[in-house]
Design goal:
heterodimer; A: DNA polymerase, domain 1; 5-stranded mixed beta sheet; 11 strands; 38% helix; globular; B: Uridine Diphospho-n-acetylenolpyruvylglucosamine Reductase, domain 3; 12 helices
């Protein structure tokens, strides 16, 4: 979610908690531009405040708000926009001025929550990671202009350059977690990079990128594979990632077992461990701890959480996962 | 990773046509090729994806197995007939790679996998005659603990990494090969070439040829694969031994023996086989026969341990084969 405010003040701790709750409900991260400050906050991220002395406020507004709406929107004390991963504005709303800028923001977010709560999460907004990524270009431009004070201000901000596509790019159809995607991909792009960099499915982790650690394990037609060694263009089956395991808020039994057995420390290998364990149970060979250890050997855990990982798999198998 | 052209073949003809292009490579499971693309060791202009071909069945016609080259390693290891009658093959498959990689890797690709020599894989710095002919061999003066002691030359000491191929060499498998000039049969033991002064050449196959099937003659019921490695699972062999024994009337009628981890190719050991024939299948005979293995080996200070270790692995494999009956 993008916000444009007429003024800004840093939130008090209680206000920060409320901001986080609203953002969690919205399923979006917030990037708020006040004329002199940029505030970035996700439901589970640290608050970041940066001085805006490079005109980011104006640049972002010009780049992301449709021209026809700009004049009208600018009059409000606070403008909120929902931007999807492709940079399209899918919703916008405004709030009236309250006693102070922070109250205005809280009231505005709360109203947005009420209005948007009927929409599916995927429609509501983009993650903080995507938000920051899409604004990197605007930032670079602002810095560039700052270094060239003699240059006349540009009429319009150019869009970030399109992703490089070689002559061998083709249209690739993928089914991931039941959802169909059509992408323009070079043949050298791995399934792992497609998931993470193109589809925002960052639950699948990149560890070694050479098939040695298992952090990128996903299922294709129910069988576990290394997404880093899979070229996306070659995928014909249905892909299941860690994001596709849970049914709504109900965790998959394997996820639940990992939580209950404390089967992780840093958590980086965990999505791969869980996908591999789900694949293992489908193979019907998780008979005892020794077999589980052997058949989980493609997933490395540098924290050494192995005993609890084995316990979790035993537990999930008993639960009939 | 460098860009390349990608074409998908749904028939043998399309695959052969696709491979006519300059610097084309076939791809099946991709577990090794994609890795080497990323390392910049392999630089094909075109990949021909052969997964659309129908070489995906394991058949047993009574005289042995006929395995499609696109059968994945998991499927072959789990095949009831393989588990029952070709234990050495099932064990070799199961000891290789990880479950994820075995789900992806094809039988044909496994046979044609390239060495894990760390200097071969290190494009940035290392001299490697296999990767860059004429550049030298960094392994000979470098860390050579994992390297070969049999079949080596002054130009290359890289070990062949496959487990499955060791079992199939022991069992005297034959390949069905398709190419622009039709089909041919090739004994697996004749597939691999020694490095000599041309380590960049690894097999007698032409670039336009494809392994379509692997035929495995009926194997003696007593067989085993023993693999010794640095960790309990998911590691390449320091040494390995594939054996199958045909025992009749308390004597070894015939033996099939191959070694892994020690050779520049999966290493057939006919001198060990010959030494066992007519012997009572006992530890003394196994140890005497194992002494015949590794004759002519050339070790480095780092990998000289493999000589003794390989003989011991052989004896252990014979004893496990006896238990298997």
């Amino acid at each position: 979610m993008l916000g444009f405010a007429r003024g800004h003040r840093a939130p008090a701790p209680a206000e920060l908690g409320r901001l986080r709750r609203e953002l969690r409900g919205l399923g979006a991260a917030l990037l708020l531009f006040a004329p002199d400050t940029v505030l970035s906050l996700g439901a589970d991220d640290e608050l970041e405040l940066a001085p805006d002395d490079g005109g980011l406020d104006r640049l972002a507004f010009e780049q992301l708000v449709p021209a026809a709406a700009r004049r009208e929107l600018r009059r409000a004390a606070l403008t909120l926009l929902i931007v999807d991963a492709d940079g399209n504005v899918t919703w916008h709303g405004q709030a009236r001025r309250c006693d102070d800028p922070m109250s205005t923001l809280l009231v505005g977010l709360s109203a947005a929550s009420r209005e948007l709560c009927e929409q599916p999460l995927s429609k509501r907004g983009i993650t903080r990671r995507e938000l920051l990524g899409s604004l990197a270009a605007a930032l670079a431009l602002a810095l560039g202009e700052g270094c060239r004070p003699d240059q006349p201000a540009r009429e319009a901000t150019p869009k970030p350059p399109p992703e490089a596509k070689g002559p061998n790019t083709s249209r690739v159809r993928l089914t991931i977690n039941g959802q169909r995607h059509e992408l323009e991909l070079e043949p050298r792009v791995s399934l792992l990079d497609t998931l993470r960099e193109r589809l925002g499915l960052t639950g699948t982790k990149k560890g070694c990128d050479h098939g040695q650690c298992g952090a990128c394990t996903v299922l294709i037609d129910g069988r576990r594979v290394n997404a880093c060694l899979t070229l996306a263009v070659m995928v014909r089956g249905e892909v299941t990632t860690i994001e596709g395991l849970a049914g709504g808020d109900a965790l998959h039994p394997m996820q639940q077992a990992f939580v209950e057995e404390d089967a992780l420390q840093c958590g980086y290998c965990t999505p791969g461990q869980i996908m591999s364990a789900v694949g293992l149970l489908r193979e019907k060979r998780a008979d005892d701890a020794a077999t589980i250890r052997e058949y989980m050997s493609g997933n490395i855990c540098r924290c050494g959480a192995y005993p609890n990982i084995v316990s979790a798999i035993v537990k999930a198998r008993r639960a009939g996962a | 990773m460098r860009d390349f052209e990608y074409v998908r073949a749904d028939s043998l003809q399309q695959a052969l046509d696709g491979a006519r292009a300059e610097n084309a490579r076939f791809i099946a499971g991709g577990t090794l090729l994609v890795d080497l693309l990323r390392l910049d060791v392999e630089r094909p202009a075109r990949l021909v994806d052969i997964n659309g071909l129908d070489w995906k069945d394991v058949e047993d016609d009574g005289a042995g197995l006929r395995i499609g080259a696109l059968v994945d390693n998991t499927k072959l290891a789990d095949h009831p007939r393989v588990r029952e009658r070709y234990r050495v093959l099932a064990q070799a498959l199961q000891s290789g790679a990880s479950p994820q990689i075995r789900n992806m890797a094809s039988v044909g690709g496994n046979l044609l996998q390239r060495t894990r020599c760390s200097y071969f894989r290190d494009v940035g710095v290392s001299a490697c005659n296999k990767r860059n002919p004429g550049s030298g061999c960094a392994a000979r003066e470098g860390f050579s603990r994992m390297h070969a002691v049999l079949g080596v030359s002054e130009h290359c000491i890289a070990a062949h990494p496959s487990d499955m191929a060791v079992a199939l060499v022991a069992l005297d498998a034959t390949l069905e090969v398709e190419g622009p000039n039709g089909s041919r049969r090739l004994p697996l033991r004749e597939l691999y070439t020694l490095p000599g002064d041309r380590p960049e050449i690894e097999t007698v196959l032409a670039a336009s040829e494809l392994i379509s099937h692997v035929r495995v003659p009926e194997a003696p019921p007593r067989s085993a694969y023993v693999k010794v490695r640095d960790r309990a699972s998911y590691a390449f062999a320091l040494v390995s031994a594939a054996v199958a024994l045909d025992i009749e009337g308390g004597r070894v009628r015939s033996a099939r023996v191959a070694l892994g981890g020690v050779g520049t190719k999966p290493w057939h050991a006919p001198e060990v086989e010959a030494a066992l024939v007519g012997q009572a299948p006992e530890r003394a005979a196994f140890e005497a026969a194992a002494e015949r293995a590794l004759e002519g080996a050339v070790a480095t200070p780092h990998n000289a341990f493999k000589l003794k270790l390989a003989r011991r692995a052989l004896v252990a494999a014979f004893e496990r084969a006896l238990e298997a009956a």
